């Protein structure tokens, strides 16, 4: 197993996970391991995400092939000039001591290969490999190294992208591909609630609901420009023929949004009537 603790990245003896090479100091764990055959929190998260009964709703209708396509897009979005130091494996010929410290090397190219091999059964398993990049970086370079700052950003970026993917895999994929201007009109497998949502300085505008938080805010994406925003619940109304207040002066943007909304509703009718008819 690894010689460095997964939580604090320092060495010293600890407990090993039954399923992975991660090591944990007892003092770094929130609870003492319950038994000899202990499965670490990181592995527990992955198991939950890959078990039929406990995996997130968004993932239930996704095939492994689709997941691979999605993860390829996530990786592509993260391949920025600033993440470049982690794109390729560390050259152990140039840094012979590397493997003395790093038990499980990880980098973007290896993750890319893993995606191709259909190694990831969930977005969580994919995120876990980016955490290895950070862990290895802290172990080898130290907590305050500039590369560690980059590695931390990488993990944050990855968590953000995966979170977006889990909100709606169809929206995520469509917004990455954007192979037609029509992508926003295509219904998602789990259709979004349609609403009128009002932002300060704007009229009520048609939008799709992506999620709600616990503080009375609704995350919406607007028809037309496809902007995202958190809108207070009391400014959000279920879609009706006319908006909750006076129709604004006609603007080009508003008319375009309405055209897109109508097209979306037509496609929704088509897709979901079709499904009802045959199932
Ligand atoms: Zn520790
Ligand atoms: Zn584990
Ligand atoms: Zn969607």
How many DSSP-defined strands?
Answer: 7
Rounded to the nearest angstrom, the radius of gyration is 23 Å
Pairing-aware structural class of the strands and helices?
Answer: alpha+beta
Cα distance spanning the termini: 50 Å
- Assembly classification: single chain
Q: Let me know the CATH homologous superfamily of the largest domain.
A: Bromodomain-like
CATH topology of the largest domain: Histone Acetyltransferase, Chain A
Q: How many domains is the backbone divided into?
A: 2
Q: Main beta sheet, described? A: 5 strands, antiparallel
Pfam family, one: Bromodomain
Keywords: Bromodomain, Metal-binding, Zinc, Zinc-finger
InterPro entries: Bromodomain (IPR001487), Bromodomain-like_sf (IPR036427), PRKCBP1_PHD (IPR044075), PWWP_dom (IPR000313), Zinc_finger_PHD-type_CS (IPR019786), Znf_FYVE_PHD (IPR011011), Znf_RING/FYVE/PHD (IPR013083)
Domain PWWP: 191-242
Structure described in brief:
This protein is of the alpha+beta class and 279 residues long. The chain has helices at 41-50, 57-60, 64-78, 98-101, 108-116, 123-141, 146-167, 169-177, 252-278, and strands spanning 15-16, 23-24, 194-197, 205-212, 217-222, 228-232, 236-238.
